[in-house]
Design a protein that fits this description.
- 2 copies of one chain form a homodimer.
- By secondary structure, chain A is α/β, with parallel strands linked by helices.
- The first copy, chain A, contains 11 helices and 11 strands.
- Chain A has an 8-stranded mixed beta sheet with strand order 3-2-1-4-5-8-9-10, sandwiched between helices. In chain A, strands 6-7 form a two-stranded antiparallel sheet.
- In chain A, helix 1 links the parallel strand 1 and strand 2.
- Chains A and B meet through strand 7, strand 10, helix 10, helix 11 and strand 11 of A and strand 7, strand 10, helix 10, helix 11 and strand 11 of B.
Chain lengths: 228, 228
């Protein structure tokens, strides 16, 4: 399968690495590929620059958002939430139409300091904003409730734990679920919450996720719905 | 121990029944005891009137918010979230001062139809509002992330699952944890998220809790933090 992963950060890189390992073709989308490759400094968290990471993943290609999306059968939104709508607009409505668009971003607003707040929240969600902006795309919200390392390797967390899917298109949710299974998620760990408005609930898990990160001191945990 | 349970709904009744079973003295607080006892119709969900329930629990006394709180060593806020601040004001600042105030309410706003929205949300929480309004009370937010039946009988849900505590006073959190253990929660199931601002995270679990209720068709489930 040909995947476009939009976003050059740790989440996008982690997904891309896993998809390549699983035998897929992966193009990472960014606003300006030359500018992305020109940066050589590690990011604020000490992660290597994109160019350094790219050297370790020669199978991954880097392209503009539009070129990445145009060539893909499935598009994954791994941009930061506040930038997702702009990134998807650059990807282009036509390049998203009819395709599964896996939205794993969270609309965290860091502009007012820590902890970040969610915007939108409560009466709307990023997933709904994306579905409204790109009505011909088949948006499925999933994987946004855990650390990137856990997304692609659920066995990092011992025991059963849950991944949620939300979306308006049943077939697209089935396709997203098949991808989750391919990445190592037992099918019984996938909970279909319903239509795209249920993404409000999963995005609103972020505040407690962040507090748990502080309380536990590591990120290898996940929500499990016991009794489901 | 002498407990005041503020609120005559199913949550308050469930807590009161369990506390009596555990050997505690329980007074339920309401705005107007005569009016509460005068209602004879079942509520909108088919639950019997308070008076009918009271007949089955003769050990429980009914009192005004103020009288219930005045006589108690521990106060439990089981009022509906939108009414909690007014109920606690009637209970009286002096009657709450220095006491553990267990806040199990969620600020759900049903006024705009279903699904309810949270108010406050994101940058504030009901628990923080209560702590600010009653600075001498020792507010601990807990138990608000599950159905009332599960609160008092965690074994209804098979396997390990989690109850969170949030609060500014370490000793009060320890006292609340002891109550949880008494109700059947393994101490290892209790996660201390931190100060009272972490209640934002647990209150924001409500939207996904409500969607899960719809998706699963029953309420005997709970969040478990796997890998904690």
């Amino acid at each position: 399968m040909r995947y476009a992963v939009l976003g050059t950060g740790v989440v996008g890189r982690t997904l891309a690495t896993r998809l390549v390992f699983l035998g897929h073709e992966v193009s990472i989308g960014t606003r300006d590929p030359e500018a992305t490759l020109a940066r050589t400094e590690p990011d604020g968290y000490g992660n290597p620059s994109y160019a350094v990471w790219q050297d370790s993943q020669p199978a991954v290609t880097l392209a503009t958002f539009a070129d990445a999306a145009a060539g893909a059968e499935v598009v994954v939104n791994a941009t930061s939430g506040g930038a997702s709508l702009a990134a998807l607009a650059e990807a282009g409505e036509d390049n998203l139409a009819g395709k599964l668009l896996v939205d794993i971003a969270n609309p965290l607003d860091f502009s007012r300091g820590m902890p970040p707040t969610l915007d939108p929240v409560n009466t709307d969600s990023l997933a709904e904003q994306i579905q409204r902006a790109f009505p011909a795309a088949k948006v499925v919200k999933t994987l946004n409730t855990m650390n990137a390392a856990v997304m692609v390797e659920p066995s990092r967390v011992a025991g059963e734990h849950t991944v949620f899917v939300s979306g308006d298109d049943a077939q697209a949710k089935e396709q997203a679920t098949a991808l989750l299974v391919e990445m190592g998620w037992p099918r019984t760990s996938v909970i279909d919450l319903g239509d795209i408005t249920s993404a409000r609930g999963t995005e609103m898990l972020l505040p407690i996720w962040l507090r748990l990160w502080g309380a536990l001191g590591h990120a290898d945990y996940n929500f499990h719905i016991q009794g489901a």
